[in-house]
Amino acid sequence: MIQTERMGILRAAEADIDVIIALESHPDNRDYLWIGTRQEHLNEIADPNHLLLVFKTLGGGEIIGYALARLDFASERFELRRIAIGPKGLGYGREAMQALLAHAFGPLRMNKLWLDVYPHNTVGIHLYESLGMHRDGVLRENYKSATHGYLDQIIYSMLRREYFRSPTADSPI
Question: Which one of 48, 64, 114, 115 is least enclosed by Cβ atoms within 10 Å?
Fold first, then answer.
């Protein structure tokens, strides 16, 4: 579906769900995103308004991450609901985000890509800001976490016109 320098980004299949749940449940990821059930992921795979994607290494085809997006075709919005990368600190998150931005604004012709992030996800916040995403606002104490209590959700977005004016649009992926 999408190819970057080091990854193939493909629609997830039922056989990928156990790896996706393992990525969600991993201690490095679980405090930053919702953990879906097998049935929820099956529903996402079947729903044309969702993209459940896996990131596979080009050489070995190992799943190193995944993303879930909700597509609103009427309003041309790409909501990045979840993204998780297994190997940390190697630039896979940046590479995946650049590819998702390019895909959302290129072939999908969306007007807006948006996401929310918890305040303690400083690595994610740094990445989104470094890609030129706009901090739209904060939904205060919008989610109750078993480990962190009430959490704010910070909203970031990028518009199509901003993407095509940004250095991100010229980045090789």
Answer: 48
